[in-house]
Amino acid sequence: MKNISLTLLTLAVATASQSALAFQKGDWIVRGGLATVSPDESTSNIVVGSDLGVDLAIDNDTQLGLNIAYFFTDKLNIEVLAATPFKHDVNFGVSDPLGTGDKLGEVTHLPPTITLNYYFNDPSSPFQPYIGAGVNYTFIFDEEFTSANDAAGLKGLSLDDSFGLSAQVGVDYMLNEQWFLNGSVRWVDIDTEASFSLNGAPGSVNSIEIDPMVYTISIGYRF
User: Fold this and answer.
1) Residue 139 in contact with residue 151, Cβ under 8 Å?
2) SS3 per-residue string spanning the chain
3) 33: how many CB neighbours lie within 10 A of its CB?
4) Residue 19: its pLDDT value, please?
């Protein structure tokens, strides 16, 4: 009887320890790490009076990614994503029509995103995978041409802000009851358009679908 009681006590302690690893209603979590925005861009051609036959390409950038989430059930949380500003090089897509170099300019953006996540919440595993969907508002600012393009007559670069959907998959790996590692992949719908002038003539790129994948590795803490 004594051995049976000891076995049951051991199982109860083990089960309680495993359950504590899974997130629970009322938990707050914060994460911080590196986030890489990798655009999968598709743009219309540059137009200045007529179609120049050249589109745009946008480079990757990596910054500090931050998010905070609150579990309103054991399996569902609301997450707010933030980051330090991402700065991307904007290049001529195929060839340089002005002879000023392949780099056209730079743009900076902030992509705050609100996501509803569903956790599979397996209490027997330190791996806590989840999927999510949400909305994003991207603030685009500090748009500028390179000095060579500015000298060639390109002025007043401006890109519109963007509102769109987002989706993600991720996993938290629990190191203990408070600390965990996180990896996630997120898709964000970012659509914009650009306006500028070339030697006083109005120019535009009427469709810029950036639609990046966002890859994040971070460390998190549960309150």
Assistant:
1) no
2) CHHHHHHHHHHHHHHHHHHHHCCCCCCEEEEEEEEEEECCCEECCCEECEECCCCEEECCEEEEEEEEEEECCCCEEEEEEEECCEEEEEEECCCCCCCCCCEEEEEEEECCEEEEEEECCCCCCCEEEEEEEEEEEEEEEEEEECHHHHHCCEEEEEECCEEEEEEEEEEEEECCCCEEEEEEEEEECCEEEEEEEECCEEEEEEEEECCCEEEEEEEEEEC
3) 17
4) 52
Residues of the chain with pLDDT under 50: 1-18
Q: What is the dihedral of CA 220, 60, 140, 65, to 10 degrees?
A: 10
Residue 184 contacts residue 210 (beta carbons within 8 Å): no
The pTM is what? 0.85
- What residues pair up with 202 in beta bridges, in sequence order? 197
Token code pair at residue 149: 């393009």
pLDDT tens string 85-121 = 999 999 887 766 666 777 889 999 999 999 999 999 8
From first CA to last CA, the distance across the chain in angstroms is 40
CATH of domain 2-222: 2.40.160.20
Residue 10 has a pLDDT of 43
State how far the Cα of 198 lies from the Cα of 29, in Å rounded to an integer: 49
Which structure tokens are listed for 60? Answer: 């990757």
Kindly list the domain boundaries of the chain, sorted by start residue: 2-222
- Interacting residues of 6 by C-beta distance below 8 A, sequence separation 6+: none
Strand partners, 208: 43, 192
